[in-house]
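stage 2 :: seqdesign
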């Protein structure tokens, strides 16, 4: 499923690069699927307060990453070896690094730009970096709490928070008007594709370790 979603992201990116490309953005910047994007943008309008709120709330997934980083560091100190840390935590660290690399890549190689100027500047917009961060990190929080907690109440609270927070951030980013709709869709495909791969590799690693013990 992860591979399928990543292929879908690649195809979606190609569509944005070559289909219905028009100079409809600020400073005559171009965007693909322009008819769809402009109609959706005109429908939602621009809501800078919502943009600011979702921007600050982007610190939440960063805090989640730091918490898992601290967990890995504690295991490293206690067990005195990086390779004695839990395999899923090591994989999670590599996954977060990969997400950051993907984010930096699209910042350096813009596919398109925002439909509005931010502080007078034209910024890269595809895929939505906040959406990518939230949907790459918050599912890992839900996945890890399922694996590590035996308290049903804690599991339900954390998973519920992850789902509601993610939904609010994606919808908020979509209707704030600071991204084209295709930017949000692209981020959803990429983040879920990466997460599904990470989750799948973790499950396969668990199975191999279990078989090795037996």
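stage 2 :: out
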């Amino acid at each position: 499923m992860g591979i399928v979603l990543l292929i879908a992201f690649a195809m979606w990116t190609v569509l944005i690069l070559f289909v219905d490309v028009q100079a409809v953005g600020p400073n005559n910047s171009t965007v693909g699927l322009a008819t769809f994007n402009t109609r959706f943008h005109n429908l939602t309008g621009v809501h800078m307060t919502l943009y600011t709120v979702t921007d600050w709330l982007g610190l939440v997934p960063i805090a989640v990453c730091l918490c898992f980083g601290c967990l890995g560091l504690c295991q490293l100190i206690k067990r005195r070896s990086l390779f004695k840390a839990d395999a899923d935590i090591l994989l999670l660290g590599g996954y977060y690094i990969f997400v950051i690399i993907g984010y930096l890549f699209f910042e350096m190689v813009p596919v398109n730009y925002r439909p509005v100027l931010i502080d007078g500047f034209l910024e890269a917009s595809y895929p939505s970096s906040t959406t990518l961060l939230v949907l790459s990190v918050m599912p890992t929080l839900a996945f890890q709490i399922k694996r590590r907690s035996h308290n049903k109440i804690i599991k339900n609270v954390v998973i519920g928070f992850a789902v509601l927070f993610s939904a609010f951030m994606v919808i908020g980013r979509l209707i704030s008007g600071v991204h084209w709709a295709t930017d949000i869709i692209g981020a959803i495909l990429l983040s879920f594709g990466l997460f599904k791969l990470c989750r799948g590799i973790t499950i396969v690693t668990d199975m191999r370790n279990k078989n090795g013990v037996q």
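stage 3 :: structure notes
- The mean pLDDT is 89.
- Residues 181-213 form the longest helix (33 residues).
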